[in-house]
Amino acid sequence: MADWTYTVSVRSLCEFTAKRGSLDRRFTPSATALEGQAMQLAVLARRSPGYEIELPLEAVHGHLRVRGRADGYEADVNRLEEIKTIRGPVDLIPENRRALHWAQLETYGALIAADRGLEELELALVYVGADTQNETVIRDKLTAAALQAAFEGRCAQFEAWAAQEAAHRAARDADLSALPFPLGELRPGQRLLAEAVYRVAANGRHLLAQAPTGIGKTLGTLYPLLRAMPGQQLDKIGYMTCKGTGRITALEALSALREATPTKALRVLTLVAKDQACEHPTKACHGDACPLAHGFYDNLPAARAEAVQAGWLDASVQRRIALKHGVCPYYLGQELLRWADVVVGDVHHAFDPYGQLYGLAQAQGWKLALLVDEAHNLIDRARDMYSTSLSLERVRAATSDAPVSLRGPLRGLAKELATLGRAQAADYAPLATVPDALAEALQRANTALGEYVQNHPLEVGPMLEFYFDVLGLQRLLDRLDTHSLCDLQRSAAPRQPSPLDEPRNLSLLEDDDDGATDVLLSVRNIVPGHFLKERFEGCHSVTLFSATLGPPDYPRQLLGLPDDTAWIDVPAPFPPEHLTVQVAQLSTRWEHRDASLNALVDVLATQYEQHPGNYLAFFSSFDYLDKAAARLALRHPGLPQWSQSRSMGDAARRGFLDRFVEDGRGIGFAVLGGAFAEGVDLPGTRLIGAFIATLGLPPVSPLQDQVRERLDTMFGADHGYADLVPGMQKVVQAAGRVLRSVDDRGWVWLLDKRYARPDVRALLPAWWQV
């Protein structure tokens, strides 16, 4: 380690050395990246023609290579600027954050002074209002010697940590270069998957991998990517899951892989949700309210040092270390994200607009590779991330609780929503554009809410959540295009004003209506690829894997993956004769269900009589499920059965699954796409068959017609992207509960004659012998 160099960004160096005092997460409305870019252009327009922007700067001090990009330099006045776009007054920015901004500016000052041989330099910290474009400037003139001394002091503070991190990375890479597979030999299908993951990581490409249950996808993706980590100089691997059960499996695999290394240098971090990690949920996140926020940055170094030595950082370890050092477990985890090698967490950390993993990777210049488990869920999850809605009833309720200063703008917003709802001929209608009057009312409400939460950071309460909703709607409307659908739904309001309501609240409806009608304004994302395209471009490699991803154009086009994204369809490990797949010649269409119910339950009973054991029966809705369960009980009263209910907690779900014992007998009724249709592992004789009484198609509705029309326009007709493809993915996922290992045998009944159609058959697994 005598001859080592550690590269660190200016931002990372300053965050490590300049942040002091208490954590302060009181809301200070931040600008978006697009707003920041716009404000930088606005500032640039006011500067002299020779103003330089985005200056790449670098210097070596000892073993450290420090580099970054300074915002702007005006040579004719010898002024270096750091530009920060903000919302609200400068004095609401916490002091330790302003100190961080100034430390960054001083560091850039030292780098440019050394690079250009300057003897002194004027520094200007420029805060620009996102709404007003007004500049608040903090200036100081420093000598090059003073700037260099401050720079060297920061480097001295960081160098011991850098030496440790360089040693860690060398040990990690040595471990991973010779990493053995923990189970001895890879299975045949698992080897094909592993080779494909390694190839795309080596070539900096992306992969769609359809791989059936039973081949070991978790180890088959983690192992090759860890082996590729040293050669590709990856800074971080993210294992992203769409459901919580996937994180448990990932941690088990990572534990086995880490234990197989000589030094166990690999650092593994679990990202925990804030509501699960918070020790004081009734307290605000700042030093005056929460004891674990008080002095957070003063106590952080000791907690951070212990954590990186521990290396294995699941939720329990993070909590233990945090409480020992008096810091918040959740925000300790956020800090440790910078120093972990593998991060396990929900997909929103990588794909949400405010995802912490992706945001830090871009800010710090990390070389990031992602694995996305159960990736067939990513389309719907991403759609939710880039969709929002606002109801008239919600605006009414907020207006009722609002202080006087907000009532006017909120009443104006309620009035325009009600007016639009009354003018609409049908209860549902798509909107090509939002009327100007409503757009202006929304903007006025946003501005008023923003000013209120800025000026009352300790008093906002529920009003802050409402502001987030209104602001989120505004931001998505600003980016509305063919990738998303804007619509208005009209319905009966949850309640009408009562004579017992306070007069103040009744008066709020004067310019609205009688309160009997509710209106829901929504922006529904249809093609998340518009937003995710830059996410994939910003990662070195992304592998999305699932048992149900095909056809490959479906995820590729809807998620915005590059055209050269690789595709692999891993053969099933099961002999085809182990799974008997049969189609029942009946109809489960809505209009035929009552007539076919006797025949349907007779299929269940006959199969059970011929091959007694545990079965799952999947239906398209709870109403359909209830009818089938009642009819089975009526016609075959001796057949044991149990059903999923509409609202099942964890205990009830465990109780449902606990009925599936080895060599058990009975049929469990469940909803397709629900809690028991995927992610459920019932090996051996715990489950020997499944009945699927639906094609998984979405209900017919005006909204669904709009979704289909939008996808047809973008990708052509007859692709099935709106209904058949996602429906059949649910079917195959549910059927995948039956065979869990190469020794299992079982039956799948497809209870609808439409399964005989060629377009439907084409979406079933090729190895099924239907």
Kindly summarize this structure in a few lines.
By secondary structure, the protein is of the alpha/beta class.
Would you give an account of this structure?
A hairpin with a 5-residue loop joins strand 5 and strand 6. Helix content is 45%, strand content 18%. An eight-stranded parallel sheet has the order 10-9-11-8-12-17-7-18, with helices on both faces. Strands 1, 2, 3, 4, 5 and 6 form a six-stranded mixed sheet that branches. It is an alpha/beta fold. The longest helix is centred in the N-terminal third of the chain and has 34 residues, at 144-177. The chain contains 27 helices and 24 strands. The protein is globular and about 90 Å long.
Rg, rounded, reads 29 Å
- Low-confidence sequence ranges: 495-512
CATH architecture of the largest domain: 3-Layer(aba) Sandwich
Rounded mean pLDDT is: 90
Distance separating the two termini:
62 Å
Q: What is the helix content?
A: 40-55%
**Which strand order does the major sheet show?**
10-9-11-8-12-17-7-18
**SS elements, strand count:** 24
Largest beta-sheet characterization:
8 strands, parallel
Shape, principal axes of CA atoms: globular
Q: Give the C-level CATH assignment of the largest domain.
A: Alpha Beta
Domains (count): 4
Helix and strand composition category: alpha/beta
Q: What is the CATH T-level topology of the largest domain? A: Rossmann fold
Number of helices: 27
Beta-strand share of residues: 15-25%
CATH superfamily of the largest domain: P-loop containing nucleotide triphosphate hydrolases
